[in-house]
Structure of Transposase:
Amino acid sequence: MDLLWKAYLRRFDQEHFHRFAKVYLGMARAHLSSAQATDRWMHLIMAAYAQLRLASPHVDDLRRPWHPRPEPGRPLSPYRVRLGFRRLRAKLGTPAGSPKLTRPGPGRPKGSRNRPKDKRPPYRKTVTTGNEHRE
């Protein structure tokens, strides 16, 4: 009986995971034509879920007014982590360099002229009628 109860609880967790992945991570939105594309999409969803789980201790609890307060010492659910993930990204920063200036570049130096293009012969299609070739 104890084994059946544990199996039921595990099934309950899996159902909640699938609902979360379908509704919030976009698992049901992709209608992909190949099995390989579906596998890649599922790997991306699993990576997003893993990121949410790993970010749980670092995210502030941004709960909705109707959500109960979390128990102290208990990690936040992936849904709650998702709510605060934007603020976490701002705290972490980025490894990218500073943005480029928005001013236009220097352009062409004053006094320079356009170079003439190379002379090329005109392109003509060959018309084939039977075995003859004409230009």
